[in-house]
UniProtKB/TrEMBL annotation:
It holds the Pfam family HTH_18. The keyword Transcription regulation applies. Coiled coil: none annotated. This is Transcriptional regulator, AraC family. InterPro entries: Homeodomain-like_sf (IPR009057), HTH_AraC (IPR018060), PchR_regulatory_protein (IPR053142). The keyword Transcription regulation applies.
């Protein structure tokens, strides 16, 4: 384990190995006590489905590096029940896992770091499935479009369904006799996966059936403009005029196609860029605010804190 500064720890893969725990029928990964209470458990539910519980309350910022070599394509459903964490790939992509949201990612190889903020409880459940497993239960080609890229990519992120949260909390509170826990986990895991992936398929089918090719192009053009001009973005009225529609229609397109608003997408773009600038120590808070289009650092700090759950100065101080 390597100390980067007095407040940040960078943890290499060999510093956090998984250990067998036969009494739990699981593998356990626990960090040293001096880093706080940080533990993950992995349960193999069948040959192509793993369930992982993560409970972290680190007493300082953690950057846990991971490297997964080329393997069969996998999909991971992450339920963030409390706290916030992120994964930053070596190519600069940032994936946020925020409390209350279900995030679905796909990959067949990954390299980067999982990052946790100090003194913040993070509780997450992850379900890792191969593409073969998905096709077994959802049908051949059901998620083919989600595996177009080799690198880690987000294919869906939305508020977790109420039934999903209820089942997830039941999983964490599983107090059945040891010989019944495996069946309980598998049943609840299957229900959660069916619920969340079913919602994703419904959304994709509704989107495809309700939007024409022209409407999709308009939405993508508007997104590309916001991605290029995030520092001085056009108003919704101006943006809609530039892509050839009206503000009401543009807002409808963003809701159907991106599951957000034009402002929501702009906020995502700005916050993810700001996080990278601060995490890489390229900019202090004031300069990061200006770089992503905020005239006043105070407004930026308020937006950043609301988005991530911690102030930007904590990230710039700890990394």
């Amino acid at each position: 384990m390597h100390v980067n500064s007095t407040t940040a720890w960078r943890i290499a893969p060999d510093d956090a190995l998984w250990q067998a725990a036969p009494e739990h029928n699981a593998l356990i990964q626990a960090l040293p006590d001096e880093l706080g209470v940080c533990q993950s458990k992995i349960f193999k539910l069948d040959a192509d489905l793993n369930y992982i519980e993560t409970r972290y309350t680190p007493n300082r910022h953690l950057a846990m590096f991971s490297q997964m070599p080329q393997q069969a394509p996998r999909m991971v459903l992450t339920l963030a029940l409390t706290g916030h964490s992120c994964f930053q790939s070596n190519n600069g992509n940032l994936i946020n896992f925020k409390a209350g949201y279900s995030t679905i990612t796909t990959f067949n190889a990954s390299e980067g770091s999982r990052q946790y903020q100090s003194d913040q409880l993070v509780t997450q459940l992850r379900f890792s499935m191969t593409q073969v497993w998905l096709e077994k239960y959802f049908g051949e080609g059901a998620f083919a479009a989600s595996f177009k890229q080799n690198a880690v990519q987000v294919v869906s992120q939305r508020a977790s369904a109420a039934a999903t949260v209820l089942a997830a909390r039941s999983l964490l509170q599983n107090s059945l006799p040891a010989n019944a826990q495996g069946l309980f986990r598998q049943g609840h895991a299957m229900a959660i996966v069916a619920n969340e992936l079913g919602c994703m398929l419904d959304s994709a089918q509704a989107q495809s059936s309700h939007l024409s090719a022209r409407e999709k192009r308009l939405a993508e053009m508007a997104r590309d403009i916001l991605s290029a001009e995030y520092k001085h973005p056009p108003s919704v009225a101006e943006l809609s005029k530039r892509v050839g529609t009206n503000p009401f229609k543009l807002k409808q397109l963003f809701h159907c196609y991106f599951n957000t608003t034009p402002y929501g997408l702009l906020l995502d773009i700005r916050m993810e860029l700001a996080y990278r600038l601060l995490a890489n120590r390229q900019y202090p808070v004031g300069m990061a605010a200006e770089a992503v289009g905020y005239q006043y650092p105070g407004n930026f700090s308020t937006a950043f804190t609301k988005y991530f759950g911690f102030p930007p100065k904590r990230l710039s101080r700890q990394t």
